[in-house]
Amino acid sequence: MRAHASVLHLDLDAFFAAVEQRDKPSLRGRPVVVGGTGGRGVVATASYEARVYGVRSAMSTREARSRCPHAAYLRGRFEEYRRTSAVVMAILREVSPLVEPLSLDEAFVDLAAATVPLPDLGPATVRALGEDLRARVREATGGVTASVGIASSKFLAKVASELDKPDGLVVVDPGTERDLLRPRHVSVIPGVGPATVERLRRLGVHTVADLEGLGADELVRELGQAHGAGLFRLARADDDRPVVAERDAKSVSVEDTYETDLVDRRLMEGLLTRQAGGVATRLRDHGLSGRTVSIKVRLADFTTLSRSATLPSPTDDPATLARVARGLLADLDTSTGVRLLGVGVSGLADWVQEDLFAAAGADLSGAPGADGTATAAEPPVELPPPRGAPVGWPPGTDVVHDVHGRGWVWGSGRSVVTVRFETADTPPGPVRSFAVDDPALHRVEAVSPAPATVAEHDPSRR
Q1: pLDDT for 375-396, tens place per residue?
Q2: Which residue among the candidates 20, 106, 269, 422 is catalytic per the annotation?
Q3: Least crowded by CB within 10 Å, which of 8, 86, 229, 361?
Q4: pLDDT tens per residue across span 315-328
């Protein structure tokens, strides 16, 4: 534990929704939900106006609509989220070289390593820095707010950033950490999800103070060595983890949920092949390769199956990854239908064994080739568009009309697309409807974000 409150955690408030409200004046002060808009969509982020109605991240879009039918439901614009995140991360790196991004919308900063040394690390000094940082983020992002926690450890800083949301700042004075934690529910501790909460409840544990009363042996017996020992320490505010500027990725994966259950095995093989290609591209972009290939299959009844295979040497070859993924699928019974497929690679390395499968022979009989098409012996399989590919006119999409200018898709259906013409720099604009094939209406190409070492957002977190 540090002697001073010198670890800062910054968390952008309802980030995806906040960016949408910034860029769409008519949505400011209104409930906004960003995520999948289809029948099987999942909420990625809900604005604070939507949270009043009980809408939360990781909730199904169907349930969110039942709770808040008048909200604006948007597909999301991830290039814009990445661009805005890069702006924030650049500001943090001006404060200290030790910045540890956790996702697009949050990061730890080590104030003890500040680029411009602070006169001291007392509560007043770090509070002033936190206030200045929040103001700089708000100005640089065009109004996106951040909540900041500053404490003597990463754990306490993250807890503190949640205490005064949105747009708040909490500094935990050294020596008061345990007093802050004791009255709070055990779920405030990272890694304590619903299953652990239920196991602790059976032990009569509801608050951190209750948890503090359990011995290390009892926690290890109930929760296992790693989890039990970790909770024993965190319940006592014992966390000495450093802020690490560059974190090594443990795995790379791609997964998709489909609007209708998949039953055609060749279609599943084609989808796995395409996902393996996406994983291979991400590996190569980061100069990595991997040895262990895994697939994730969620059946129609929500049963989730996973299989993995470890190769003799690491690879980033899409054909190899696809071949292994399809082989793993062959061992699973998918006759009841599949709602989710995913491919992942772990056991990462920064080198590649060339021609690992050069002697492996031809591809699996009848399986799609490395590019997602069938082999010569089979007719081609028509795959649904990949995740993120423009399909129709999803709500929230940036567009421009030859006559009316810039705007965004309000909704579409029955061969009509409705657009609200406004931007971040205009008042709320008018609404117009057009035929979906109107030649004067165009998508606005996303602007690539500035380079930044930022992890992708996990919609299940928030």
Answers
A1: 444 556 666 666 555 567 889 9
A2: 106
A3: 361
A4: 999 999 999 999 99
